[in-house]
UniProtKB/TrEMBL annotation, chain A:
This is Glutamate synthase domain-containing protein 1. GO terms for molecular function: transferase activity. Residues 2-302 form the Glutamine amidotransferase type-2 domain. It comes from the Bacteria. It comes from Neomicrococcus aestuarii.
TrEMBL record, chain B:
It comes from Neomicrococcus aestuarii. This is Glutamate synthase domain-containing protein 3. It comes from the Bacteria. InterPro entries: Glu_synth_asu_C_sf, Glu_synth_lsu_3. GO terms for molecular function: oxidoreductase activity.
């Protein structure tokens, strides 16, 4: 099944409560996918800052101490880059005042076995295996502020139960994708992307979707066009939520196999797999609540 | 065990208690598990009135009711609310999730808000009233149920419908009545597209009467003459190679 909860806050005064709101949404979708979970939070103070690149690394044990990682990165980057390494729950966040690509190369050289699960100036991505609420609690979601948040509780169908196979997939700066469903032709699209030079981190079908969208954005599509193109190329059934630094998008497959419900108020846009995840949001009684149409791309920007 | 609260104001004060006076039972789903609620409803006696508070979008509320009771759910319901409904009446003062009143056999289910996809799917009888919109696949494979939707319905509604009536006071989505057998569909608004073997048919007096009865039963005041009727062209009952492209 898998469960999705996504929240974009329009009212800045709600940003302090982003983590607690997302946490309460997530509680209600655990039954949909209890094997693992992932989170993405945007503009969360203490995790990311604009003008600074941040990478999210899977796991907290990389064979080197935090100081050793920092020293290695300092020696590779310019002295003004001032790298910062911190462990949040089961995730390692590495930040520095350099271009993301340069930081990626430096981290890959320092920690060749590490898996980068998030990158950009705005987003921090956290993943784990186990009960989704424990993963959220380990990472301190409830006390996080932010502008957007995204969570996914996974029931693995297309690849193994590993933290690396958890959603969201974040394969370009500030881009995240979560998926409920499965893509049936992901293997052939993967081969085409590999021929274009795209590299993959996992066997997961959703990663193919994320890599495809990143590739379309690189070719000049905006988010809406990229998702429309995905609809033409991918077979299968899906509800997707894609976030960028300032946008959130929702799309369902052309026969709308997988559930999705959206609530909009002046204060926020919230999307979830089921209504019960939205039930505790403030002002939900008077929100505009609707189910997205099949195959139609919905986008909202901050 | 279900935790019941019986407000004194709702209990008849005169003694001895007259059996014709319904006793109102209130179940708070913050205190009681859904399984216990459903067991209590199965054990209820004819004529009782039950109220469910704080449903919070929980799944499988009031399923399989086989006693002549009225159940009022004050708030939103999750998946499969009032599924397999046999007797009595369930009213949801909120929205309902996927599979509302799925496989309803008889009785009445009324949603005052919107219903998600597959509402009244495979229903054999009874009446399902949705005041708001219904999502995709409303009345899919309906087998005798009557459905009245105050708003719009989504795509692939009444797919393979075999019997019963579907009334839509708003618009219908793509592929309405795809591969329909014998059910009757009445739509007041626009139809995005008709599915395979579904055609518009003339409104005769018997259809206007039938529709008027359904609208009244649903508590609606729409004018039957503003509706169009759709049904099966009966070209796809038996496989014919000449029709192979129509499936």
């Amino acid at each position: 099944m898998c469960g999705i909860a996504a929240l974009q806050l329009r009212n800045p005064s709600l940003q302090a409560d982003m983590g607690s709101l997302l946490n309460s949404m997530m509680c209600q979708i655990v039954e949909r996918g209890p094997d693992s979970a992932g989170l993405a939070v945007y503009d969360t103070p203490g995790l990311v800052s604009e003008g600074t690149s941040t990478l999210s690394l899977l796991g907290k044990d990389h064979g080197l101490s935090i100081d050793e990682i920092k020293d290695s990165l300092t020696s590779m980057l310019s002295p003004s880059a001032t790298p910062v390494v911190k462990v949040v729950g089961d995730t390692t966040l590495v930040s520095a005042s350099v271009e993301t690509d340069l930081l990626v190369r430096s981290v890959q050289e320092t920690l060749p076995d590490s898996v980068i699960i998030g990158r950009g100036e705005h987003v921090a991505v956290m993943k784990g295996v186990g009960h989704p609420m424990e993963i959220a609690s380990d990472h301190g979601l409830e006390s996080m502020a932010g502008s957007q948040g995204l969570s996914h509780t996974r029931m693995a169908t297309e690849s193994a139960v590993t933290a690396g196979g958890s959603h969201p997939f974040s394969v370009a700066d500030d881009l995240c994708l979560v998926h409920n469903g499965s893509f049936s032709n992901h293997a052939s699209i993967r081969r085409e992307l590999i021929r274009e030079g795209v590299e993959f981190d996992s066997d997961n079908d959703t990663e193919v979707g994320a890599r495809y969208i990143a590739s379309r954005l690189k070719k000049g599509d905006d988010l809406e066009a990229a998702l429309r193109n995905l609809g033409k190329v991918f077979d299968g059934f899906y509800t997707l939520v894609v976030t960028t630094s300032k946008s959130m998008a929702v799309v369902r497959d052309p026969i709308a196999c997988k559930p999705a419900i959206i609530a909009e108020t002046d204060d926020y846009v919230a999307m979830a797999s089921e209504y019960r995840a939205l039930a505790s949001l403030p002002g939900i009684e008077t929100a505009h609540i609707f189910e997205p149409e099949p195959g139609k791309v919905y986008t909202w920007s901050l | 065990m279900v935790t019941l609260t019986s407000p004194e104001s709702q209990i008849p004060s005169a003694a001895p208690q007259v059996s014709a006076n319904p006793v109102a039972f209130v179940v708070d789903l913050i205190d009681s598990p859904v399984r216990d609620l459903n067991q209590a409803l199965h054990d209820a006696e004819d004529g009782q009135a039950w109220t469910v508070i704080n449903p919070g979008g929980k799944h499988s509320l009031a399923v399989g009711i086989d006693t002549d009771i009225s159940v009022s759910i004050n708030g939103h319901a999750g998946y499969y609310a009032a599924g397999m409904h046999q007797k009595g009446e369930v009213t949801i003062s909120g929205n309902a999730g996927v599979g509302l009143a799925e496989n309803i056999m008889s009785g009445r289910v009324h949603v005052k808000g919107d219903a998600s996809q597959s509402a009244a799917a495979t229903g054999h009888g009874g009446l399902v009233v949705i005041d708001g919109n219904a999502g995709a696949r409303c009345g899919i494979s309906m087998k005798g149920v009557d459905i009245v939707v105050g708003g719009n319905i989504g795509h692939m509604s009444a797919f393979m419908a075999q019997a019963g009536r579907l009334v839509v006071c708003g618009d219908a989505g793509e592929a309405l009545g795809d591969s329909i057998y014998e059910a009757r569909i009445y739509v007041k608004g626009s139809v995005a597209s008709l599915g395979a073997d579904c055609i518009q048919k003339p409104m005769e007096s018997e259809h206007l009467e039938e529709l008027a009865e359904l609208l009244i039963a649903a508590g609606r005041t729409d004018d039957p003459t503003e509706f169009k009727r759709y049904g099966s062209a009966r070209n796809l009952y038996h496989f014919s190679v000449h029709n192979s492209t129509a499936y």
